[in-house]
Design goal:
heterodimer; A: 167 residues; alpha+beta; 2 domains; three-stranded antiparallel β-sheet; two-stranded antiparallel sheet; 5 helices; B: 93 residues; Glutaredoxin; five-stranded mixed β-sheet; globular
Chain lengths: 167, 93
């Protein structure tokens, strides 16, 4: 487990940060702290390898523009929480899972296979255009109408590059 | 390709594709170890570019979603993801 090149202090800090951030954003981490720490080691290693914390349970391409959707928290987390009670890695779980001690298993991959991944670059047509562009956070769905997306999502703290043009 | 062999009881030809960082992959390996079953595995994220592309073509053949872990049993079927039940069923445990 400690075979990676990461330094333990960094991993500990990452873990603490993740706990604080998810709590502040209203998300719950898996109550199994050993499980979470193993995932955090993977996130930390990926941060070192690629320069961004891509999902430890998915193979990153190493090209940030192709991996944006799997930078943790990934674009698929909320849909998986809704359908299965956990994200793909089971790093995040729902309140219900947290309280019910449901046994988690690995869930199907929701990310489309390579070659069929799309990102909204052009907003819906045939609608009255709002006076400002509307941006959507692909991580949590937050919408805002302004010239540019915010530097950080005020709800889930995702970075600006995780936004897409919605309207 | 650099498959790593884990010694154990023969339950057919088992080829396991994993990521070194993936906890479900780790649970799959732990389960096979607990059952004392022999298998070959490769941590795809640790491979060089050329080997990685080659290996992903193999994974794609068995599991078009290319998710991990993928356990190919006797070159016939592929167990995707980890659940003890599906591994038991595939291996007749």
């Amino acid at each position: 487990m400690n075979g990676g090149p990461g330094n333990p202090t960094g991993i500990d800090l990452y873990y603490e940060d993740l706990m604080a951030q998810s709590k502040a954003a209203g998300y719950h981490l898996n109550p199994d702290s050993g499980f979470v720490k193993a995932l955090v080691e993977g996130l930390f290693l990926n941060q070192e390898r690629y320069g961004y914390p891509s999902c430890p349970c998915r193979l990153a391409s190493g090209r940030k523009e192709d991996d944006l959707d799997i930078i943790c928290p990934c674009d698929y987390r909320d849909a998986d929480l809704g359908e299965y009670g956990s994200c793909f890695c089971a790093l995040y779980v729902t309140q219900a899972v947290l309280q019910g001690n449901a046994r988690l298993t690995s869930i199907p991959e929701r990310r489309p296979p390579e070659g069929s991944r799309t990102r909204n670059e052009t907003p819906v047509r045939e609608m009255a255009r709002p006076s400002l562009p509307v941006w959507r956070c692909r991580v949590c769905g937050y919408l805002c109408a302004r010239e540019e997306p915010p530097a950080t999502c005020p709800v889930c703290k995702a970075a600006k590059e995780r936004f897409e043009r919605f309207l | 390709m650099a498959m790593i062999h884990v010694e154990g009881k023969d339950h057919g030809n088992l080829v396991l594709y994993t990521l070194s960082t993936c906890v479900w992959c780790r649970m799959m390996k732990n389960f096979l170890a607990k059952m004392g079953i022999g298998y070959d595995y490769v941590d795809v994220d640790t491979l060089g570019d050329e080997e990685k592309t080659q290996t992903m073509d193999e994974v794609r053949h068995w599991n078009p979603q290319c998710s991990f872990p993928s356990l190919v049993v006797n070159g016939e079927q592929c167990v995707v993801g980890f659940s003890e039940d599906s591994v038991r069923k595939a291996l007749g445990l």
